């Protein structure tokens, strides 16, 4: 019995050693270079993020502005790239006249001087709206951007034409598979090299459609990211990468990352080998994904020498910390 116990112990030690060697980041090649910075909504006005709900009008909760950029505009995107962003995130909605409007909200009531569901309007009508109309930082006493955002809502086609060589992340706001089919048609009309610089995330149904209809575009949805991370934590120690993690854009909360086999370098290498890009968010809490890596304290939680992706709402501040500011 003693001999069997010793044999079993040695076998377990050998397995443990194999798992360690297969997953330790100490033995993995380290990708040199600076982090890849993703500017969420471009250069945008920040707002009080406490107790947010799906229908919260964040424009009325704006913090005192430190700049005059409005999210999801060409001007905002250009400023983000100039500040050091490698990728800019933008939101889209299909319009009744066949375009994709670049705008965050499901309705135009909060930020603009218009009313109604965004996708139920024509681009011609949306173009007439003042997208800075609803922003206030003092309880509606003043509206510093009112009258300054008329005609500034762009189309996706304009974004693609304005930034032909830049990386973009497109957010599909609906769960309509038909929207995924329409967006897939737009993406498939682009050269293969250009498609490779675009990522798409959003509702499960449209993202599934895009994933099936397009080649070279990395995607992710809530169901896919949960499937990817849960399965990877379950058997990623083998070196196998779940299907949901392949050809994907992965969002990893910073408090979940240490639980991923091989974090950081071996994990990043495994994902790169299956054409997936990894971006770290702020902590996952209360069943919700966080906003981003937006402060020096959050940035300090990243591994030393981290060269993967970072999702941020504060591109100017984080670009300076990461050594990517162009100032």
UniProtKB/TrEMBL annotation:
Gene Ontology MF: a single term: phosphoric diester hydrolase activity
Keyword Signal: yes
Domain of life according to the entry: Bacteria
Keywords from the UniProt entry: Signal
Annotated SUPFAM superfamilies: PLC-like phosphodiesterases (SSF51695)
PROSITE patterns from the UniProt entry: GP_PDE (PS51704)
Pfam family, one: GDPD
InterPro entries the UniProt entry points to: GP_PDE_dom, PLC-like_Pdiesterase_TIM-brl
GP-PDE domain boundaries: 51-322
Transmembrane segments: none
One GO biological process term: lipid metabolic process
Signal among keywords: yes
Signal peptide positions on this chain: 1-21
Name of the molecule in the record: Glycerophosphodiester phosphodiesterase
Species for this entry: Bradyrhizobium nanningense
């Amino acid at each position: 019995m003693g001999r069997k116990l010793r044999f079993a112990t040695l076998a377990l030690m050998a397995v443990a050693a194999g798992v360690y060697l297969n997953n330790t980041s100490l033995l993995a090649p380290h990708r040199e270079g600076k982090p890849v910075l993703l500017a969420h909504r471009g250069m945008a006005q920040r707002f009080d993020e406490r107790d947010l709900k799906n229908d919260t009008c964040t424009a009325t909760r704006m913090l005192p502005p430190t700049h005059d950029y409005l999210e999801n505009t060409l001007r905002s995107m250009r400023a983000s790239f100039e500040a050091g962003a490698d990728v800019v995130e933008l939101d889209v909605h299909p319009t009744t006249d066949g375009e994709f409007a670049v705008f965050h909200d499901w309705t135009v009531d909060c930020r603009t001087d218009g009313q109604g569901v965004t996708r139920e309007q024509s681009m011609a009508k949306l173009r007439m709206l003042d997208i800075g109309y609803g922003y206030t930082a003092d309880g509606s006493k003043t509206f510093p951007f009112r009258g300054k955002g008329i005609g500034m809502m762009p189309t996706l086609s304009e974004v693609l034409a304005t930034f032909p060589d830049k990386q973009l992340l497109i957010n599909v706001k609906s769960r309509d598979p038909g929207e995924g089919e329409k967006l897939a048609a737009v993406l498939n009309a682009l050269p293969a090299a250009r498609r490779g610089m675009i990522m798409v995330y959003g509702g499960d149904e449209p993202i599934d459609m895009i994933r099936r209809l397009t080649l070279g575009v990395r995607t992710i949805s809530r169901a896919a990211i949960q499937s990817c991370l849960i399965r990877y934590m379950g058997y990623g120690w083998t070196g196998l990468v779940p299907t949901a993690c392949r050809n994907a854009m992965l969002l990893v909360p910073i408090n979940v990352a240490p639980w991923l086999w091989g974090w950081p370098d071996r994990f990043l290498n495994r994902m790169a080998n299956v054409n997936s890009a990894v971006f770290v968010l702020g902590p996952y809490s209360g069943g919700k994904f966080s906003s981003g890596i937006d402060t020096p304290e959050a940035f300090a939680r990243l591994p030393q020498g981290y060269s993967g992706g970072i999702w941020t709402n504060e591109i100017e501040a984080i670009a300076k910390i990461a050594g990517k500011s162009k100032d």
